[in-house]
Amino acid sequence: MPEAAALAHGAELNPDGHGYAVVTAQGIVVGKSFDFEEALEKFTHLRHEHRGGPALFHSRFRTHGKTSMANIHPFMVNLRSSTVLAHNGILPASVQPSRGQKKSDTRIFAEDCLGESMSDRFDDDAVRFVLERWLGPWNKVVVLTVDPAYAKQSYVFNENAGIWEDGIWYSNSDFQPPVQFDRVGYSGMCIACDSVDTADPTGICLVCDKCVECASRPGDCARWCPRVWSIPLCDECELLVDECECATAANIVVDADETMPIELPTTARLSALAGSPTRLSRRDNAG
User: Fold this and answer.
1) For a tag site, which of 28, 68, 259, 263 has the least CB within 10 Å?
2) Sign of torsion, CA 42 45 49 53?
3) pLDDT over 80 at 249, yes or no
4) Which structural domains are found in the chain, ordered by start?
């Protein structure tokens, strides 16, 4: 069970809705609320009653889609209550909502795009490799399931991009107390590697490829990072202008009523990937 303070730190930085899922003997219990204290109380009560299986808690920072109860994580995968998904990051442009769509990118991904050809094969290392490659290194996904077709009840994609602490997996550092700096703004030295005057125009160090302000990797800055508040937002997608994909995604934006499925390679290609162990990785259950 994560510390309440850790969840509170995350909720403070990600205030746009809080959700949880707990695996029980009867199925997966899911709850959502805009009130963090309410969500925490219910999650804590459930977790104490059902300690045997995995569980997740998610606080949302809106990037795409409306701020609504329907867009609070977790989401049912393929609209089946036996499997749910939560995500941290910004998904590729092919699943981002078009103008006027109210669904978030994660909701589109879980409900409309993660087809059975992929979601029913999470135990296949080749499928996991393809999915993680599509997600990119900064997107993290947790899946909980009670479907007997799966070998496990929990899966973490891009697990190495998160943080394990005391048996709990966190998708980023937002659970930690905010770091207080004695300086105001960029001093000229990268906080990650101590290089001097090595920041590119967007605030990323040319030596270590991390944010000079908070030492995070590109696209994963902490919400308190001065860089997040100093870079203008894209008018189209409301992301930081150096992180949005609007310019490159202009030709693949989907209509409001359409979604673009993720394409798997051919069977032959999957077999080839499965024969390349150095490119695949086995993930353990989530905590």
Assistant:
1) 263
2) positive
3) no
4) 4-175+258-279 (3.60.20)
H-type helices in the chain, by residue range? 4-13, 36-49, 105-108, 116-119, 125-135, 226-230, 267-274
Cα–Cα distance for residue pair 228/41, rounded to 1 Å = 31
Q: pLDDT tens across 104-154, in order?
A: 999 999 998 887 667 778 899 998 999 999 998 889 999 999 999 899 999
* C-alpha–C-alpha distance, residues 42 and 152, integer Å: 25
Backbone angles phi, psi at 5, to 5 degrees: -65, -35
Q: Residue 202: exposed, middle, or buried by beta-carbon count in 10 A (0-12, 13-18, 19+)? A: middle
CA distance 150 to 283: 14
Contact between 273 and 280 under an 8 Å Cβ cutoff? The reply is: yes
Counts for the chain of helices (H) and strands (E), in that order = 7, 9
Lookup result for tokens 């949302």:
60
